[in-house]
Amino acid sequence: MTDKQTPPPATPAAAGAPTPAPSATRPVAPTSAPSATRPVAPTSAPSATRPVAPAPAPSAAPSAAPSVASAPGASAGVGARTPDSSVDGGPDSGASAAGVRDRWAAVSGAAREAGRRWASTSFAQGAARLWAHPPRWIIPAVSVAVVLVAVLAGYQVLGGAGSGGTPPAAWNSPSIAPSASAPLAPRPSAAPVKRTDDLAQVCEGVFYPKSPRYTGRAPHQISVGVTDSLTGPHRRIRAAVDIPDSLAKPLRDAWLPSDPAKSQLVACVTLTKSGTPIRKCDTHQLARGVYTLSLYEVATGRRLLKKQLYGDATTCPNAVPVGTAPTIASTVSDKVLYQQLKNFVVASR
Fold first, then answer.
1. Which site among 58, 117, 137, 206 is 20 to 30 Å from 253 CA-CA?
2. Paired sense of beta strands 187-188 and 222-227, if any
3. Alpha-carbon distance 214 to 222, whole Å?
4. How remote is the C-alpha of 221 from its chain's centroid?
5. 110 in helix, strand or coil?
6. What pLDDT sits at residue 163?
7. How far apart are CA 90 and CA 100, in angstroms?
8. What does residue 226 show for φ and ψ, rounded to 5 degrees?
9. pTM value?
10. What is the pLDDT of residues 58-89, one digit of tens each?
């Protein structure tokens, strides 16, 4: 009888092949186990340090309270004051004040150094010696300068008051006669001189081209027109001028023209203002007259002379026209007119 061997049990064979062992000892895939040690995704945990979403707080608390004390960083917000702020007198303000003091000290030191350098110059030393020991002539010179300044100041004050103030009481508000001066552009006349009154227009800027020219041998015939009133422009041509009796007849005829058309010159005597009172003439006051003497060539209107004269005839007039102003002006005598105009009459051209 043959013995039949039984196969060996499966257990030892299983010990040599550990593959079917339970997976609890394999660390390759531990994903299914709860991982309490992995800090990668802690998002599900409540974050007490994040001040972004304080909404879960109870609604009974004021809404502003969590925002004020929620995060530690609130102390460094907009309204926070840092230790280096210069508003509260921090280190910056101290540094700026120290800088200002340093700059001021530097400027003061430079100024003192400049003063010492200037004091050491010869000019400063000379000025100091002059101040300490002035020469003998300095006091008289300063005294003279002070006196001169005082005199000039007084002259300016008195002169300004006299020229800028009211006229002196001796003057009667001088006024200018309407025909005191001839126009700037003389006007020619188409008609020749026919009457004596035509020559009066020469004093108003009219000339007569057909009249004889002021040229050639002497004498040169002259006519004299006078305006001795400030109330109107009327001018009269004098018929004669009192001249020395020793003149020869041709010269006398030149001063006493019989034909106005032959006059080469016209002298215009014009009252410009009344000056200081001279005397009382019945119901009128005689005052010193101020006149303008102008000499024109009849043919061209060219002015040959302009001069100021004063009325030297201080006697009261024999008659005063009706309607004359209370103040009458003294007149220019014929003697003065002759002295002023004779060289134009007797000199050859």
1. 206
2. unpaired
3. 10
4. 56
5. helix
6. 38
7. 16
8. -130, 135
9. 0.48
10. 443 444 333 433 434 433 444 444 444 444 44
